[in-house]
Amino acid sequence: MRPYELTVAAAAAAIATGELSPVELTASVLDRVAEVEPGLNAYVAVRPEAARRAAERAERERTAGRAHGPLHGVPFALKDLIDVKGQSTSASSRVRDGHVADADSTVAARLAAAGAVLLGKAHTHEFAYGLTTPQTRNAWDAERVAGGSSGGSAVAVAAGTALFSIGTDTGGSIRVPAALNGVVGLKPTYGLVPTQGVTALSWSLDHVGPITRTVQDAALVLPALTGGAELPYVEGDLTGLRVGVPANYYFDRVTPDVEAAVRDAVERLRDLGAELVDVRIPMTRYIQAVQWGLMVPEASANHERTLRTAPELYGDDIRVLLEAGELFHAGDYLRARRARTLMSQEWARLLEEVDVIAAPTVPLTAARTGQHTVEWPDGTVESVSDAYVRLSAPANITGLPALTVPVGRDGAGLPIGMQLVGRPRAERTLLRAGRAYEMTRPDAGAIAPGRVASALGRAEAALPSP
């Protein structure tokens, strides 16, 4: 196994014993970046020399007995909404041309203090306002969307060009690309990870969290983000855990492959000792209206000045959304906030009956690039973005923690994710359940198989000879 293929946990163990140095690990990951990044476009920018210097510093500290924990010397990527002093925060937008951060975000500062090695900034859908990240290719198939808005972050982890990454999640933007690229994504409880120094999309819905190749790795990264202690959880069976299986909403309008894989994973939780409980998801008819009713006006308020002074700098899709937000009435926004309060109360009652909810993360696997809609067997036509946000939005509206775990692949070989939603600040329970399931899978932590390279080869072969 080459160093870039290691999980965070395996790399941390090898670094701690001196079997592997941060310098060797970082060099391996940078070589992997050089190999596959031209076909992925996961990164806005990679800073190899700065990464090598950070790795050398981490190795000197380790040798001197001053290691900072499990992330010490481990290379990672930051979504390019997250400030690092002296570096651009582009938000993948022309609006941010020439921007340079004058201070570290809290997240960047905490990861630096943990000894992690920053490789560079990963692409986002412009200002995190979308679910596809169109400039980035899916790590499993170059002709499919990466998911968004943390598409670059998820693709980097899936392809082995970062051992972990940090994304943001306003309506599913960590969990959606993680699911579509076959990796783990954790949206923590609202407010658990500080958003200071992170470009906002919607202040009342935004979350920051890790994208990793295993649940075990997510448990190692999260404490560094929160500034808290490690999150010990009991590995092994799930005896005593009550898992809610939705009888409505979450399995409505999902592809057969997704439903089969997730239901199989839920049964595996039962085999591990969990008790399955049928539950009904409350207030489902209001989910989309509340998500958009909060996000759209808040996003437009954030961009009010620039939208009026330089609207031409925004992509067409983002500009339309921002202009639409200016048409919202204050009363509509207040009704959305009131509905959010009621929805949160109903979910709290639901989570008195069970410890976690298990459901699909997204209703379909990665759509083809350029595909704008999906038609369901009942005749419903839905935009791809609406389909991807539909099952992830409830955890943003309520602020509940949610974890996506790979649970298989569809007939085209594309990854499928299962979402676990839990009580506020019960990340430990989600990690316990996700890790127990993960330990039953022989392919846990594997990187994507490199179909990007083969797709690029086909494209190059089709080009005329010079």
TrEMBL record:
EC number: 6.3.5.6, 6.3.5.7
PROSITE patterns in the record: AMIDASES
Ranges where the Amidase domain occurs: 24-431
InterPro entries: Amidase, Amidase_CS, Amidase_dom, AS_sf
Alphabetical keyword list: Ligase, Transferase
GO molecular function terms noted in the UniProt entry: asparaginyl-tRNA synthase (glutamine-hydrolyzing) activity; glutaminyl-tRNA synthase (glutamine-hydrolyzing) activity; transferase activity
PANTHER family: AMIDASE AMID-RELATED, TRANSAMIDASE
Name of the protein in its database record: Amidase
